[in-house]
Write a structure and sequence with these properties.
It is built from three helices and no strands. The protein is mainly alpha-helical. The protein has one domain.
Amino acid sequence: MTGGATLIDVAQAARVSLATASRVFSSPHLVRDSTAQRVREARAG
């Protein structure tokens, strides 16, 4: 384990549901650009 952020951590930081955060990476065409950007920024730290 690397000790990095989990998907739950990213979702909480981006203020989105776990399902939405997951969709950003698995089915990005289903997520608004502005939401996807928030999730990507949260993932970057």
